[in-house]
Design brief:
By secondary structure, the chain is mainly beta. 0% of the residues lie in helices and 49% in strands. It has no helices and 11 strands. The strands form 2 sheets. Strands 2, 4, 5, 6, 9, 10 and 11 form a 7-stranded mixed sheet that branches.
């Protein structure tokens, strides 16, 4: 059974950086894609970034391109999201998710992902 555990969230100030991690287990990852989403109160879950497990190809939402960076560690089975220049608008619960195949046209869709973590809270104060 696939398990995803997010960590690294917390309370930071505007302008700070934060690095989230997603520890994945329970599956032999090959052509999977790992994505990061976030959900603020009252909002829909929003796609942020995704990475191909085998090829390392990355895909970003325009809203975070240049400010967020996704990476993976195939040895430790972890995927990280480096977030810079945070603003209060980045306050949300951040989730990682696994899609069993990498497809550029589908990576931004929540429906493409089969497995989800429980999320980690990020709060950015002004």
């Amino acid at each position: 059974q696939v398990q995803l555990v997010e960590s690294g969230g917390g309370l930071v100030k505007a302008g700070d950086s934060l690095r989230l991690s997603c520890a994945a287990s329970g599956r032999y990852f090959t052509n999977d894609a790992i994505g990061w989403f976030r959900q603020a109160p009252g909002n829909e879950r929003e796609f942020l970034a995704a990475i191909g497990w085998s090829n390392g190809a990355t895909y970003y939402a325009d809203s975070v391109k240049g400010r967020f960076s996704i990476s993976r560690d195939n040895i430790r089975n972890t995927v990280s999201l480096q977030m810079n220049s945070l603003t209060p608008e980045d306050t949300a619960v951040y989730y990682c998710a696994v899609a069993i195949y990498y497809a550029d046209y589908a990576l931004s869709s929540r429906d493409h992902y089969e497995y989800w973590g429980q999320g980690t809270q990020v709060t950015v104060s002004s």
